[in-house]
Amino acid sequence: TFMLVQFMKVAEGKEEAWLKLERETWKPMHALRVKDGGIKSWAVIAQAMPGDESNGPTLGTVTTFQGWPDPTRTNWTDLMKKAHPQGNADSLFQQTEDARRIVRSEIWQVLDQTDPAAMGGTK
User: Fold this and answer.
1) Which of 17, 101, 106, 115 is the most exposed place for a label (fewest CB within 10 A)?
2) Is 109 exposed, middle or buried (0-12, 13-18, 19+ CB in 10 A)?
3) CB-CB contact of 80 with 93 (8 Å)
4) Rounded distance, CA 107 to CA 69, Å?
């Protein structure tokens, strides 16, 4: 299992708008990816401690994969249309760009874990 951790820079005072966008726009898309086996799980994360940006961004997402993450396997426009048939994909992508900027991406490998599986690992 691998985890793609993406750290986000969100404009000050815009955190709630960003979280709403993640929940309403991106979560349904990632739920489809889980359903079709493209990913194991997806989560929105916020740093709890320390409560400042001394070590970088404090918001992000974690996506877990069985095997090495291959971003070319996802057709984001088709996925957006499937998750939001009444929405305008270009508009939703623009809202995302306006809401946040990915400032760092890291891939972590799960080496061992307890049962039940944490973070979408094997059971």
Assistant:
1) 115
2) exposed
3) yes
4) 8
What is the spatial distance between Cα 113 and Cα 123, in angstroms, rounded to a whole number?
10
Give the DSSP letter of residue 104: E
Q: Which amino acid is at 93?
A: F
pTM here? 0.83
Let me know: does 45 contact 59? Beta carbons within 8 Å.
Answer: yes
* Pair 86, 8: CB distance under 8 Å: no
Q: With contact defined as beta carbons under 8 Å apart, do 83 and 28 qualify?
A: yes
Please state, in angstroms and rounded to a whole number, the distance separating the CA atoms of residues 122 and 1: 7
Give residue-wise pLDDT tens across range 25-35: 999 999 999 99
What is residue 123's predicted lDDT score, i.e. its pLDDT?
A: 45
Q: Please count the other Cβ atoms lying within 10 Å of the Cβ belonging to residue 112.
A: 5
Confidence label for 53 from pLDDT (cuts 50, 70 and 90):
low
Averaged over 79-94, what is the pLDDT? 90
Bridge partner list, 78: none
Q: Residue type at 88? A: N
